[in-house]
Structures are given as structure tokens and as C-alpha cells.
Design goal:
Elements (H helix, E strand, L loop, with lengths): L1 H27 L9 H4 E4 L2 E4 L1 H31 L4 H15 L3 H16 L3 H26 L3 H9 L4 H31 L11 H12 L2 H30 L4
Antiparallel strand pairs: 1-2
Helix pairs in contact: 3-4, 3-6, 3-9, 4-6, 5-6, 6-8, 7-8, 8-10, 9-10
């Protein structure tokens, strides 16, 4: 009953919001041209599939987000283990990295990497974006992973050691599986944030989904149509990722 009431309230609120927006747009006398959208995604010319600008941008966004997600998890894991190591140098290095990245804006990090560091090291704009996103999201993933490891009861580790498991086997068979069960929802949220944050790479002239949207709007003035389409694209990516991670999370609940 409570769930049904919540759904009804959500539908009513969305209906009111839609009515307000429709009324507002009517006052603007905006000429909607949804029929012009499909070619910006794809078209069929002479029997061949031709990608549009928005689809090109979506592909770039997916590439940057996918690489950033993989590298951020790897970097976050390494940093988390470094924070928990017995080496003072590793702990200090990891702490400086996490605190520096978490306490500075992502946009500034992208600018520093692209305009200051990349000319010296000859790094392309694409890889500057990937590195910046990986560093930024990796710092947050590091704290999530570290908290998951810390929250594992000490008795679990002691039990593993008592039956003769090595440190490596203890991490692989005892610590990491339990850590994943605890931190997967938070890592999923961080992954979604990475995809949304990837829109900032348009500031360094990478023609991702956001940049392509800006280009089309400046040329056609299809302001509402294009930005609604861009928003739906981002929503589709994040919703799909959240669904897949939720499926993995549900399966892990039944793994002993």
C-alpha cells in the first residue's frame, strides 16, 4: 500500500510539473521541431548507415567514461591498499593524492592537466580527459574501498590466518569479496557520477555528447530538442549502468 501511494504521488507530481512546463512553453511560443532530431543520431543514405553528430559524441562519451571507470577502480584500489600498508611512504603518498584531488574542483584539474602538463608530456586531449576523470573518481573510490576493508571484522582475518592462508589468499578469498558486498552500491553511485562528470571534458574541445550538443544548438537553435535529447542519452547510460550493477549486487548476496 505504501509503495502504491508513493507511486501515485510521484505520478501526480510529474503530471503537475509537465502541465507547468507545457503552459510555460506555450507562453514562449516556441516552435518545436522534433522531426529534425533523427538525422543527428543516424540516417540511412544509399542503403548505408551514417552516424550523426550526437551519435558520434555519444561514442566518445562512452569511450572516455569506460576507460575512466576502469582506471579509477584500479587507481582507487591501489590507493586504498597503500593507505592501509605498513609503509609510511606509501601511506603518505596515498593520503596526499586523495586529499589533493578531493579538495580541488574537477574542472580545474582538467585545465591543469590539459594546458599545463599535457604540452610537456605530449598527451592528447582525449587521454588528458581520461586521466583527469580517473584521478578524480579514483580518489573517491579509494575512500570507499578503504572503508569497506576497514569495516570487515578482524575475526575474519584472524580466522583466515589460523587456517594457514597467505596474506594474498586472505585478501582474495576473504577480504575483497566481503568488501565488494559492502561497497558495491557506493561504487555504483561513483560510477554514475563519473559518467555525468565526463560532460566537463567538452571544455577542452573534445567533441563528446555535450560538445556536439552545443555545436548543433549554435547552428540550428534547436535549444530544447537537442538538450532534451542529450539529457535522455545521459539518463540511458546511467540507468543502464545502475541496472547492471544492481543485478550484480543481488547475485552477490547469495554467494557465500
Amino acid at each position: 500500500m505504501k509503495r502504491a501511494a508513493g507511486v501515485i504521488k510521484s505520478v501526480v507530481l510529474l503530471g503537475i510539473l509537465a502541465a507547468v512546463l507545457v503552459g510555460g512553453y506555450q507562453n514562449l511560443e516556441y516552435n518545436w521541431q522534433w522531426y529534425r532530431l533523427p538525422p543527428y543520431f543516424f540516417s540511412i543514405e544509399k542503403g548505408q548507415f551514417v552516424k550523426g553528430l550526437l551519435l558520434d559524441g555519444l561514442v566518445i562519451t562512452l569511450k572516455i567514461s569506460s576507460l575512466g571507470l576502469v582506471f579509477s577502480i584500479l587507481l582507487g584500489s591501489f590507493s586504498a591498499f597503500a593507505r592501509l600498508s605498513v609503509s609510511p611512504m606509501l601511506r603518505l603518498s596515498a593520503w596526499v593524492y586523495v586529499e589533493t584531488i578531493r579538495n580541488t574542483p574537477l574542472l580545474i584539474q582538467i585545465f591543469i592537466l590539459y594546458f599545463v602538463i599535457s604540452p610537456v608530456l605530449d598527451i592528447s586531449a582525449f587521454w588528458s580527459a581520461v586521466i583527469a576523470l580517473s584521478l578524480f573518481e579514483g580518489a573517491y573510490a579509494s575512500e570507499i574501498i578503504r572503508s569497506g576493508i576497514i569495516n570487515i571484522p578482524a575475526g575474519q582475518v584472524e580466522a583466515a590466518q589460523s587456517i594457514g592462508l597467505s596474506a594474498y589468499a586472505t585478501y582474495v578469498k576473504v577480504i575483497i569479496p566481503q568488501m565488494l558486498r559492502q561497497t558495491l552500491p557506493m561504487l555504483a553511485g561513483q560510477s554514475v557520477s563519473l559518467i555525468k562528470d565526463s560532460a566537463l571534458v567538452s571544455t577542452i574541445s573534445i567533441y563528446d555528447l555535450t560538445m556536439q550538443g552545443q555545436k548543433i544548438v549554435s547552428e540550428t537553435f534547436l535549444t530544447f530538442e537537442i538538450w532534451f535529447a542529450v539529457a535522455v542519452c545521459y539518463l540511458s547510460i546511467t540507468a543502464t549502468l545502475s541496472f547492471l550493477i544492481r543485478r550484480v549486487e543481488n547475485k552477490m548476496k547469495y554467494i557465500n
